[in-house]
Specification:
2 copies of one chain form a homodimer. Chain A is of the alpha/beta class. Chain A has one domain (11-275): Divalent-metal-dependent TIM barrel enzymes (TIM Barrel, Alpha-Beta Barrel), CATH 3.20.20.150. In chain A, 44% of the residues lie in helices and 16% in strands. Chain A is built from 11 helices and 10 strands. Chain A has an 8-stranded parallel barrel with strand order 1-2-3-4-5-6-7-10, surrounded by 8 helices. In chain A, helix 1 links the parallel strand 1 and strand 2 (37-41). Chain A binds chain B through residues 110, 112-115, 119, 146-148, 150-152, 156-158, 160-161, 184-188, 210, 212-214, 217, 227-230, and chain B through 110, 112-115, 119, 146-148, 150-152, 155-158, 160-161, 184-188, 210, 212-214, 217, 227-230.
Chain lengths: 276, 276
């Protein structure tokens, strides 16, 4: 059996979990709480400034587990798809500057009803940015999203699909990000975790919980322990598959966003030790 | 290319679509509109009486495409699981009496966090009722539900999984029901439709649409044409796989439930001819 964590050495605050905090507040909050990792969001990096964000984390001794997010490749016109790829190149530059372990790719929805066509556009977009990312030492992590987001956020809906897309490249170029909220329901979850890990393609592991009933399709994720996801079992599988990197707590939830940030971080630490 | 339908010979009103109607109103509504099939729900059958429901449909010349629903096998105790199996036997009896083409199985959620354990309980439950159903000439159709219902309605979340479960039995005993709302997001959809159809295991086909944004996780399905699902493409695949039976319109949507039933049926006919 996988043992509970004895410490928070691998714990990362994904900035969205304390969405009301700006970059400085989030970095300071992690430092106060002894949380050693942070996952940054591009809008908050932009608000604080790229080099300022890097310096804030560096001065606080924080490491950057990921930058969220590139992707959103499908679009109705070639010009718009080109603009999305350019934006992904900027995201790669930012990830390189920040020293992020991985650039997370949320691949985007179809511009129309053609979901297979949109998947092809995702594949084309990734192919365009891989050489650019490789030159800058940035790994790309395809994050399959829960199928309930297929129409609005990602046509990549399963770990199997994400891993198959990643396998067109080396594990140093493209891998996958396993987020329990997105994958817990999958009958193929455990074999697919093993498959993704077999050549070192698991580039990130995100935790939260699925609460019942869900208060909102987007802002309804729960704190670990409040829902039905078998967190420790999935963590064990991800570790068995070879992943020993940072574990991000990524929670979209209005009630949690309305709490004082320090309380969220304290609760996150407690639940991480109890449930992950 | 699959051609649009020229008539409504295969159209079935799933009773939930006109949820405000009781059995007599639904049968009369189908008869007025020339809809040749109806899918019945057990609560409405119970309210009208079993033999009265059968006679209503028979007198109106309606055929029963399915009875909704059996299933809900997992439970916390052996006694409760036994009670669920007994209830499924009653559902088989009702389906036999009604002459329904198939008894739809919505398999149920886990009683706790153990989703794999719940799946085993589903398999055990189906194994218990197959001989009973076979003796009464009732086919069982496992309906995979959208993964967003994994915590509350079904631990069977993909067509692949449902077909694998069905394949323990003959196609005359157990098959699958393909509902576009539940499966449209699946990267393996088309190969899995072909697989399910290869030995005649597709026992039903349900249509509706995925509207954006979704007004409600349970009551947010759309009328065909109002959303993003490639209805005609999926219908073509199901037909290519050999299914030529009734096509149920099954819509859980409060706004549609609040419309006069005759208007719903008219709209359903129009959209079926335009989009399916």
């Amino acid at each position: 059996m996988t043992q509970p964590f004895q410490n928070i050495d691998r714990l990362s605050l994904n900035q969205i979990t304390t969405n009301a905090w700006n970059m400085k507040e989030a970095v300071d909050g992690c430092a106060r709480a002894g949380v050693p990792w942070i996952a940054m969001w591009r809008d908050k990096v932009e608000a604080a400034g790229l080099s300022a964000s890097r310096k804030l984390a560096q001065d606080a001794g924080l490491r950057v587990s990921s930058l969220c997010r590139g992707g959103y490749f499908p679009a109705a016109t070639a010009a718009e798809r080109r603009a999305r790829i350019d934006d992904n190149r900027r995201a790669v530059d930012e990830a390189a500057e920040l020293g992020a372990e991985v650039l997370v790719l949320v691949c985007g929805p179809a511009a129309d009803r053609d979901i297979e066509g949109a998947r092809a556009q995702v594949a084309e977009g990734i192919a365009e940015i891989v050489p650019y990312a490789r030159e800058r030492g940035v790994k790309l992590g395809i994050e399959p999203l829960h199928p309930m987001y297929a129409a609005q956020r990602s046509v990549v809906t399963t770990l199997e699909q994400a891993t198959t897309m990643a396998q067109l490249y080396t594990p140093e170029e493209v891998g996958v990000v396993v987020d329990v909220f997105h994958v817990w329901w999958d009958p193929n979850l455990y074999p697919q975790i093993a498959r993704a890990g077999a050549d070192g393609r698991i580039l990130g592991f995100h935790v939260s919980d699925w609460i019942v009933p869900m208060p909102d399709m987007l802002l309804g994720r729960g704190m670990m322990g409040d829902g039905v996801i078998e967190l420790r079992k999935i963590r064990a599988a991800v570790e068995e598959a070879g992943y020993t990197g940072p574990i991000e707590v990524e929670i979209f939830n209005q009630a949690i966003w309305d709490m004082p940030g320090d309380e969220v971080v304290d609760l996150m630490k407690k639940r991480y030790l109890e449930h992950c």
